[in-house]
Design a protein that fits this description.
This protein is of the alpha+beta class and 337 residues long. It folds into two domains: 264 residues, no CATH class; 51 residues, no CATH class. The chain has 13 helices and six strands. The strands form two sheets. It has a four-stranded mixed β-sheet, with helices on both faces. Strand 3 and strand 4 form a beta hairpin. The relative contact order is 0.13.
């Protein structure tokens, strides 16, 4: 089936519950504001921009246009109206990342371009565009740099600096991993093919290139189903310990199991259906959680209790109306619109 641009898509519609819980916990830590102040002081975003401009290859509509078309489609399919810059970085592992708060940009590795099909690359670029759409980039960049800036923070805070840094660092790292589940859903919404999303995770999990033609997504799906059957309490405890070892992404099989669960529950298809061009005129009359038809004066769904559709600022939660480029409450630039 042809892929569909998903009009008026709000990232809160596909936000993973692990992402939301970790972000709520992170925002309750007083030291977060202290670290944010230092992060902005050091202007890390500008340094990343200089680094990529000087060391990587920028993709444009005329320079590697086939890759730029993939970027454009990924943004179009998840309704990210600002198309970020895209760079190819040297490196033969399959890898991609996103940086930048005011001027976000996406980096993909040479290995991603070399070893992924165009549909798989669409899924990966959609995943990174999803980080931008959800407003993840500020905190994810802070997670990458907190160790580097730790001494400066400690010096400024006298005796409590180490304690503050430790708490913020752990909370940022946990949230950063949990945010991957939300962006995995964005990647699936971009490529709109569950088999493609699973094959990407297989390659990321370690399948060597010479075995790509022997990959069996059905076997990996079965492995992911087996993983879901493990005792959830034991799994949660083990995973919480595992993330402390410095992992920056969740396990590939865990990510696959979460994608499959979301699709099997029908939530993925519900978003595809409600945000397609042929149905978009009815979006204000439809509950995005359960599909119930709403009356014009209802602000909540009478079936599941969800709030009526609204655009939300990813930073402060303020309701957005019309075509604002900035949130009127906190001033955040709304790249996702």
């Amino acid at each position: 089936m042809p892929r569909k641009p998903l009009l008026m898509l709000n990232p809160h519609e596909y936000e993973h519950e692990y992402d939301k819980m970790a972000l709520d916990s992170l925002n309750k830590i007083p030291g977060l504001k202290i670290y944010s102040k230092f992060y902005l002081k050091y202007d890390i975003e500008k340094q990343y921009k200089i680094l990529n401009t000087g060391s990587s290859i920028k993709v444009t509509p005329t320079h590697f246009p086939e890759i730029h078309q993939i970027l454009e489609e990924a943004c179009r399919n998840i309704h990210l109206t600002h198309i970020p810059d895209l760079y190819i970085q040297r490196g033969w592992e399959i890898n991609a990342s996103t940086t930048g708060r005011e001027q976000p940009l996406i980096m993909i590795s040479s290995g991603a371009v070399e070893y992924l099909t165009s549909e798989e690359l669409l899924c990966v670029v959609g995943h990174e565009a999803g980080h931008i759409k959800s407003g993840h980039t500020l905190y994810s960049n802070m997670a990458r740099t907190i160790s580097m800036l730790g001494e400066s923070i400690i010096d400024s805070l006298w005796g409590i600096g180490g304690y503050v840094q430790s708490n913020v660092e752990q909370a940022l790292n946990l949230w950063s991993q949990m945010s991957e589940f939300t962006s995995d859903r964005a990647g699936l919404l971009a490529c709109q093919d569950k088999e493609v999303a699973i094959s990407v995770l297989m390659k990321l999990s370690g399948v060597p290139p010479k075995l790509y033609d022997k990959m069996d997504t059905g076997e990996f799906i079965e492995q992911a189903s087996e993983f879901k059957s493990f005792d959830s309490d034991a799994l949660d405890k083990m995973y919480k310990e595992y993330f402390k070892l410095g992992r920056d992404h969740p396990w590939g099989v865990l990510r696959a199991s979460e994608i499959l669960k979301w699709a099997d529950e029908g939530k993925y298809q519900h978003i595809i259906d409600i945000h397609s061009e042929e149905n978009i005129d009815n979006i204000d009359e439809t509950c995005l959680e359960c599909g119930n038809k709403l009356k014009s004066d209802e602000t909540f769904c009478g079936i599941c209790g969800s709030k009526r559709w609204e655009q939300i600022c990813p930073k402060c939660g303020n309701q957005i109306k019309g075509d604002e480029g900035f949130c009127g409450e906190c001033g955040k630039k709304l790249w996702r619109r």
